[in-house]
Amino acid sequence: MAPMKAMKTTAMKGTKAMTKGALADALATAAALKKSECSKLLDALADIGAGEVVKTGKFTLPGLCMIKTRQKKATKAGKRMMFGKEVKVKAKPAKTVVKAFPVAALKHQF
Fold it and tell me: Is the entire prediction scored with pTM above 0.85?
């Protein structure tokens, strides 16, 4: 079986992600508002989203993504088999993990 090569799309080659200023500028031209107002709007959206994720564990940007938290349980220290070898593993405490998922509407666009 031949080794698998990583797939690269044309969108990922050499292009950079949109900055907050560029996003505020694009929103300002689309909504006929000032760039500073759009920047404040983005700040408020980030604050509201962070608050909702902390409070309820879930926040959805309609048509874009859903941000969720989940609890990872603690692991005990000991010895485990990994790749055919016995390995010592340290204990890890329980922690909360934050993940973002695309909504169905965004998945169907590609």
Answer: no
